[in-house]
Amino acid sequence: MSVANGFEFVRAGLLMENPDVKNGNHGDRSARFLEIAVLAFVPAVVGILILVSWTLDSWEIGDPFWQKGIALIAALFGGYTRFVEGFGDILKRRITVNVFVAVALAATLAIGEFRAAALIVFIMSVSGALEAYTLDKNRMHIRNLLDLAPRMAMVRRGEQEISMPASEVRVGDIIIVRPGERIPVDGMVTEGASSVNQAPITGESMPVEKFIGSEVFGGTLNQSGRLAIETTKTGEDTTLARIVHLVEEAQRTRAPIQNLADRFTVWFLPTVLVLAVIGFFTSGDIKVSVSILLVACPCAFAIATPTAVTAGIANMARRAVLIKGGIFLELAGQIETLLVDKTGTFTLGMPRVMEVVALNGALKEDVLRLASIAEKYSEHPLARAVLDRAREEKIHVPDPEKFRVESGRGVTAHWAGKDLLVGNREFMQGKGVALGEDIALMVSHHVELGRTVILVASHAQPMGLISIADEIRPETVQSIVSLKAMGIRNITMLTGDNPNVARSVAAAIGVDDFQAGLLPEQKQDYVRRLQGEGQKVGMIGDGINDAPALALADVGIAMGAGGTDVAIDTADVTLMTDDLSRVAEFIWMSKKVVRRIKMNIFFSIIYNVIGLTLGSLGLLTPVLAVIFQEGGCITVVFSSTLLLWAKPFFPSQKNHVE
């Protein structure tokens, strides 16, 4: 159980005097010193009062009434919050850890052991301060993300550039960011080009090239060039602020396994009270009963879950995986079937030229050049893929002299005395282009591979064909191997694409099954059917059409970097980089956190059993009982904190095959 709440009245007063701390400026050294001072305040005051009381007693200075009175003040000052919360829970008819502490301290004071009670409070305060500080360190790198966003921004006003607080920047303002400066807002590049380090947002280790039209995130570092950025999101709406908000919300959410601690406390207190009564009657010493109450306090049991969940969420946040609640750290490890949207998840979601085939003696370079000329002014994604391939091969693409689009079919263009046609088979046949059986077979072959085929003709004579497909993400195959190593029994691909495309992609990446031609509601129905069969279902998607399935799945995972806001807001987990390997890491962490929680609970119970045995035999004084009990708390905190540095390991594809 955390005793950080015991310091809140001190913290609140001090924070009112220090706006930097109140506003979350935890990166500032003085703010950190103040935070430590706040945590140390209660145990320091209690410790000083105990020392004064002991000194007066040892040197026989003053009246014994004052000697004990100082110890009583120390006990009441340090234990005030515990008494209030404990007896408040009793009035609410709730049996909690605070009830344990309040009863034990009240019993200690009732037998006149004021200095012992004060010492108990001191030990608990020190342990609680250590626990609170450790958990604060676990969360600190999340809070420090806010410090990445600069507080000032350079805003263009007409012909001038004005420095102003970033909080006053509005959507639509043009922000100027020079090399070496951090970007203060989310926005779109309107001028310039640069390399931007966006590791805090997406987890990418290498800087990302940005140019006109590129999206940038607040808090990322502009490394090389001068950028003009049109603001799209500011303040709490920025991606950086949303990350912090999501993680903080997640850390406040308890995992279902925490309910076990609640149920344990309900029956454990009556049992301990009975043992305390038995201890008194068998020994005749009330201190034995008090020691039993103190050593049985299930603090370690109470913090077993929240400390592990907090550390697990923090670890995943550092890996650019945002978890919206501790519940999903438990559920992810139970997933039996993982459903994955194809476009934008298994694939890049961008058409790419896979092959250029020349016909009738033409050269591949000529086929690509003529297709690029005809498609130069088209906004169709397939046209963009053709032009990208021409750019990669450094082919000069002049402007067409005439250009016309026939929607859904193809384009006609005129250049250098040539009438160019680029489009599908029906378009070509409608324009009188003769396609022989050999060309028809080629087209069918590429279609069976899940590709889209466009034909290129000049003066009604076919010159070649270009096959285009959505490129599979490089990490997809290895990610599937890792997911299966994590115990996922079935990985099914869901797509609205036609069965040929789905079959081709499924075979290439090695998934167990696929469902093609699905509408959004059909994806959701598929999730519902699997859940009706009793399966735990995970769903990964990135688009608006995936949102219904993401919401219904036991664990919905959104591809955050390229995903829509609807998908991200609906999902339970967000990947801030479009890297499927992060899903396997998340599931690995889920299993590890649950194992660590169970281990923490097991050892906390062992601590209680040993402590109760020693206390019942009269081998513990009240002070030794508290030392023993708090040792369990420290052990649990240390065990959970180790999760911060846990690193997933998965077998390689080669090892998996072998």
Task: Describe it.
With 658 residues, the chain is α+β, with helices and mostly antiparallel strands. Helices cover 53% and strands 18% of the residues. The strands form four sheets. The protein has a seven-stranded mixed β-sheet with strand order 10-22-21-20-11-18-19, sandwiched between helices. Strands 2-1-3-9-4-7 form a six-stranded antiparallel β-sheet, with no helix packed on it.
Residue-averaged pLDDT: 79
Unreliable runs:
1-29, 653-658
- What's the total number of strands? 22
Please state the structural category: alpha+beta
Radius of gyration: 33 Å
Determine the oligomeric state from the structure. single chain
The tally of helices reads 26
N→C terminal distance: 47 Å
Query: What percentage of the residues does DSSP assign to strands (E)?
Result: 15-25%
The largest sheet has its strands arranged as 10-22-21-20-11-18-19
Helical proportion, percent range: 40-55%
Outline of this structure?
With 658 residues, the protein is α+β, with helices and mostly antiparallel strands. The protein contains 26 helices and 22 strands. The chain has a 7-stranded mixed β-sheet with strand order 10-22-21-20-11-18-19, sandwiched between helices. A 6-stranded antiparallel β-sheet has the order 2-1-3-9-4-7, with no helix packed on it. A 6-stranded antiparallel β-sheet has the order 12-17-16-15-14-13.
